[in-house]
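Observation: inputs received (chain + zinc ion).
Thought: call the complex predictor directly.
Action: predict_structure
Action Input:
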Amino acid sequence: MAHDAPQATGPSKLVIRNIGLVLSGALEKPILDADTIVAENGKITGIGRAKDVNSERATTIVDALGTTVAPGLIDSHVHPVAGDWTPRQNQINWIDSYLHGGVTTMISAGEVHMPGRPRDVVGLKAMAVFAQRAFWTLRPGGVKVHAGAPVIECEMVEEDFKEMAAAGVKLLGEVGLGGVKDGPTARKMVGWARKYGIQSTIHTGGPSIPGSGLIDKDVVLEADTDVVGHINGGHTALPDDQIRCICEGCKRGLELVHNGNERSALYTLRTAREMGDLARIILGTDAPAGSGVQPLGILRMISMLSSLGEVPAEIAFCFATGNTARMRALDCGLVEIGRAADFVIMDKAQHSPAKTLLDSVRLGDLPGVGMTIIDGIVRTQRSRNTPPATKVPEIVGH
Ligand SMILES: [Zn+2]
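Observation:
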């Protein structure tokens, strides 16, 4: 069912009206003065007050009924394997379940749970190209899965990175999950990857499962990946002084994951805030993993960081949207003209003591998801996974 998600066939025009609150995803202006969003052929073409935008000849009209629209959430750290099945916990439809948690884009940090994963250079390159192709063709529920993230091994040479990049590979899996665990080798290969336009991330902290190893601050700083993958550990975190060294010792992305150490996530958040570096904070779940699959993991991180980390909820949403999109050069993640029309529409959960959605998140509650939209197409309505939203948007016209 989820495997034949509708793609736009002809010209389409989506109008979302009666929006109570628009979250932009942009740290510098997280709330927009708008009650209407228009998207044509999957891209945002209008944002503003109803009288100021052109909503004529809509093919789909959504009445938001005063609820909140945000960019679709981005999970910066997942481990997909084969379609919407994960062998790690032998679960199917996990990606579709994430969509019900508001996630519309996922970034692979390596297809490491593939049974029999090849570790020879020819095999790992082939698997990277295969995973990139397979997940670009298959969009479970419409979710965009950026996959094909090889785990580097010591035998690789520069030509391998050039060849993978030419074949469409744009990501490295977590450095440290394969044979390369030392700073100098990692730095050399991350440099090759960067030279050919391949983004990189690293496994930070203690081993995640038997067979993986410790990556400490010295290796992280020397490797100089674009993203410091799960700086709060996956699950075992580095000591606070090492986390601080990493925050201060580079300007790379600081990724906080659900399947990590929550106290260390809060420590990293406070450190980044002191440094005026909140733009470096991005969120992931690091699932599927030993801790399972968390369809609401990104919403839970937003709520945890906002409530315990004392960050306004509208800022915490930026960590999972605009920050990630900018860092990873994605065309989604911001409510901005020309961006992909990927949205999550939410309201405060029923019986939350808060007055508004933002207050409810600040109090530590999860929002209720009422609708998801990808490329201007409505993908889900009332979430089967979040607490029920007080109000849910309605499709009122085609
Ligand atoms: Zn990891």
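Thought: report the result.
Final Answer: Residues 174, 203, 208, 229-230, 234 surround zinc ion (CB under 6 Å). The chain has a mean pLDDT of 96.
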